[in-house]
Amino acid sequence: MLVILSQKVDSESSYADELFDSYHYPARYKNQLHKGDIFIYYQGNRYDKSQRYYFGVGSVGEIQTTDGENYYAKLLDCQQFERKVPIYLPDGGYIEQLGFETVRKSLNPPWQSSIRPLSQEAYDYILKAAGIQLSSEPVHQDSINVLKDKLKLAVRDFYVEGNSSAIHRIESIASAIGRATSTSGKENEHIQSSRYSPTVSQVEKLSRLLDYCKTMRMSYSYKPILILALLHYGDQDGCISIENAAVYFREYYSNRKAQGLAIEKKQCIYLRDNVTDAQIIANLLSNPVKVLIESGFFFYNEDSHVFSISPDIWSTIDGSDKAAITRICRQKLKDYYKD
């Protein structure tokens, strides 16, 4: 699929990136980047609008981790743009707003996310603005056969080896074969680089999120409560401030106490009547926020103090999906307090 990789080039970075060679990112993004993805490099700057631009393109190779916390993606076929592409459209708005409905629900991109999905329309616009022509080659039967062989290997990885990430390769290769076979019998027709269709990968990610909610381990009741806070107190972009999440937690435990129900199974700050908002926020950051972002399905922006769900997952969630996640979380809480 197509993604944006945020990369600092005009300031110090806390990550061990090698420009146009490797990309270092934390575990919270582990489900957002896959081998074979096509990326656009993005430089952001909170204080200088002139330093917000796209400056390169490439593909993602092997991804490795040694500790489960830090991930390193090898970058392949990289090309630096001869001219930087500002993030703004000439008539106002942002380039990443083009075709946004194919990758998310909100018009504006989640600028705080270091890795985020990119629409095909925005991708094509950026390359054109950078003066790069999408390469194309005549379609030959040999190239189709190579694609078929790759598809067989990807299917085997998915069904036999149990490699769920292979679904992205299956999607991309199958699309390429479809276009190749539809043009192979026509003269002067060419196959272009594969175009991203978000349906399978995003549905797969939503399915993984549901599975995660069903199977997440619970030492305290915090994780499903924070997910419920996000669903019911969050905004239209799937975000909630940590302050509003603290309000939800206070109300949740107060309601349990008022109904004569156990507040928690263990000693915790919510047993105290005089617990402060600051203490609740500190508790949220040290426990459920930290664990949930490690799952790769959620993010926390330390600058804006906002907790959010992965934007490419949120873009696929409708009312029935929210109801399903709500049921799962409430059942998890019911089982937790029953034990």
UniProtKB/TrEMBL annotation:
This one is known as Uncharacterized protein
The organism encoding this protein is Intestinimonas butyriciproducens
